[in-house]
Amino acid sequence: MAAAISNNYKGSKLLFSFILTRRTMTFKSYCTLALVICSLGRCFAEDDHEMEEFLKREFSLTKPYQGVGSSGSSHWELMGDSMVTTEQVRLTPDMQSRQGAVWSRIPCHLKDWEMQVHFKIHGQGKKNLNGDGLAIWYTKERMQKGPVFGNMDNFTGLGVFVDTYPNEEKHLEAQKKRYTPRTQRIFPFVLAMVGNGSISYDHERDGRPTELGGCNAMVRNLKHDTFLFIRYVRRRLTVMIDIEGQHEWRDCLDIPGVRLPQGYYFGASAITGDLSDNHDIISLKLYQLTVLRTQKEEEEAEEEITIPSVDNIDLLRVGQSEEGMSGVAIFFTVLFSMLGCFLLIVVGLVVYSHWSENRRKRFY
């Protein structure tokens, strides 16, 4: 309410000063300006109150990690090579062939939620000599070891991966091939995937065939804190990162039409192979989001979702492939388009000149 009053006051003040400096404006212009400013003030007030968040401690993992991994009363359970210290939950040490995870014991039944992940990836390996990465999960299954960043393949639910090793690039190098500029990625790379229990994660291609989208994120061996932000609201999945030490979120992916069932488990896992890193979770903070919905959105929210899915997934992936056009491809596309337009203009002029000449002959 205070925000709305403040915004309306600022709008009124701006309107008054504008009238004093522009005495020649018509009455209609004054009315229009006043309506616009009042509408903006009301929009700002609504945006401030459109969404409220509440920390859910039973789904959050924070210091001092009391009872984690050692007490049946704890809300979180350790698996594999993971361990708890005073500063972090270490999913894997900087050693070869390790995997570990931490999983919530309680299923989450929230419709709209937001997970803020404070993590750290560091080790002795130099660039591209480290691996393999970590994952944040919201899945039907829990406490299952496997090859997908320390979790099972063919999972059911959502996985957000911080992939630090370019498997596809190394595979192509071994075959003496190269990435095309259209498809090349910069690692580490953050991507998201929704699985329905029958979709396999393609390790050789770094999950490219099944990804919803992603972004590069240089997160290794940084001296400042790094964060990952996952929001699921109104069936829309948003992932952002804060890795520059500026306390500013950067967009990574934003996908509408994501359908995730309720009652799944949150978790985090990591794996190392021939190459390794320390994969640390410093905190997982889950917020319940209270969102204003239209009647139609409320009806949609009441529909029971039993299998994770993404609307128009085929169109989404077609769009991703088209977005990756190289600079050379764009140049030739523009060039040939211009030549085509020029050719059409020339043909049009020739046709017009012949038509004009024939028309003159008919009059003489």
Task: Describe what you observe in this structure.
By secondary structure, this protein is of the alpha+beta class. It folds into 2 domains: 2-50; 56-320, Jelly Rolls. Helices cover 30% and strands 29% of the residues. It has helices at 2-21, 27-50, 167-174, 295-302, 313-323, 327-363; strands at 51-55, 76-80, 83-84, 89-92, 99-104, 113-122, 133-139, 156-163, 189-196, 213-216, 226-233, 236-242, 250-256, 258-259, 265-271, 278-291, 309-310. The strands form 3 sheets. Strands 1, 3, 4, 6, 11, 12, 13 and 16 form an 8-stranded antiparallel β-sheet that branches. Strands 2-5-15-7-8-9-10 form a 7-stranded antiparallel β-sheet, with no helix packed on it. The chain has a two-stranded antiparallel ribbon with strand order 14-17. A hairpin with a 4-residue loop joins strand 3 and strand 4 (89-92). Helix 1 packs antiparallel against helix 2. The radius of gyration is 28 Å and the shape is globular. The model is unreliable at 1-49 and 322-326 (pLDDT under 50).
Keywords, please?
about 375 residues; alpha+beta; Jelly Rolls; 2 domains; 8-stranded antiparallel beta sheet; 6 helices; 17 strands; disordered N terminus; disulfide bond; metal-binding; Lectin, mannose-binding 2-like a; transmembrane helix
